[in-house]
Amino acid sequence: MSEATIPLRCIIIDDESNARNTLASFLNEYCKNIEIIAMASNVPEGVLAINKLQPDLVFLDIEMPEYNGFELFNFIQKINFEIIFVTAYSEYAIRAFEVSAIDYLLKPLEIESLQKAIEKVVTKKHHYNIQERLPILKDAINREEIKKIALPMLDGLLFVEVDKIILLEADGSYTSLILSDGSKLYVSKKLKFFEEILQNRNNFFRTHRSFLININFIKKFLKGENNIIMDNDFVVALARERRQEFDALLSSI
Predict the structure, then answer these.
(1) Strand order of the sheet with strand 235-237?
(2) b/e per residue, 8-18, with b = 16+ CB within 10 A?
(3) Residue-wise pLDDT tens digits, 41-64
(4) pTM score, two decimals?
(5) How many whole angstroms separate alpha carbon 28 and alpha carbon 15?
(6) Among 97, 133, 169, 246, who pairs with 176 as Cys (CB 3.0-4.6 Å)?
(7) Residue 143 to residues 29, 105, 147, 234: CA-CA distances in angstroms?
(8) From residue 220, how far is each of 33, 93, 155, 204, 226 by CA, in Å?
């Protein structure tokens, strides 16, 4: 059997029997490249199954009694499998998953979303270590504030502190990020993505359809020209329709 046809061996960990059975049914029916090797109803059972069976993939519920899904990793020395979280978490937590580049599925499950998540694992789009991504996810959920973003690069992920971003500039389906150390990153994400995940950070403001800036790096505002000069001397346009909101923001600082 060729490597391409070897199914991914997976374990499902969820305290709700209906949730486990529904996911298993969907996998058996719609994801032929998946082999379910075990199901567990809590973290201790899941740890035993993982250590014994060495899966390729774990579907992990977060909200479980006694131990939540994150605590599973306290009992595993090396994570050599991929993870897809299954959650009914809030919209904010979804942004936390996005910035940490960790796959998730929302309850109630949708077949198309499940298939897309499986495809990412099968095609090995994640060449980077899950243990680097988990702290970002846990920190974002616990603090309810985005501190770091995992940015996809050609050779993996780059972890960037949000407060070191001076500005972001749209370039079609890509975004340029300029950092406080002078470096510039080119990321295959639209500016709208960053605007949404940073919406709870009061220091970021969308000045124009092309710009999202960190107001902590503003050096000067040229009122007559509706231009903002950043600390790195980059000139950012301020759209006329955003002027009133921008003035209100400045007065509140």
Answers:
(1) 218-222, 227-230, 235-237
(2) bbbbbbbbeee
(3) 999 999 999 999 999 999 999 889
(4) 0.65
(5) 20
(6) 169
(7) 39, 22, 9, 32
(8) 57, 35, 37, 16, 11
- The fraction of the chain above a pLDDT of 70, given in percent, is 90
Residue 244 makes CB contacts below 8 A (sequence gap 6+) with: none
| Interatomic CA distance for residues 210 and 132, integer angstroms | 31
CA separation (Å) from 6 to 2, 23, 31, 122, 193?
7, 20, 13, 10, 35
What are the structural domains, with CATH classification, of the chain?
3-143 (3.40.50.2300), 161-251 (2.40.50.1020)
Spell out the per-residue pLDDT of the chain, length 253, in tens: 444 568 899 999 999 999 999 999 999 999 988 999 999 999 999 999 999 999 999 999 988 988 888 889 889 888 888 889 898 866 656 777 777 767 888 888 999 999 999 988 877 655 456 777 777 777 766 666 678 888 877 777 788 999 999 999 999 899 999 999 999 999 998 999 899 888 878 899 999 999 999 999 999 999 889 999 999 999 999 999 999 999 888 887 7
Return phi, psi of residue 244, to 5°. Answer: -65, -45
Question: Which are the contacts of 126, defined by CB distance < 8 A and separation ≥ 6?
Answer: 82, 101, 103, 120
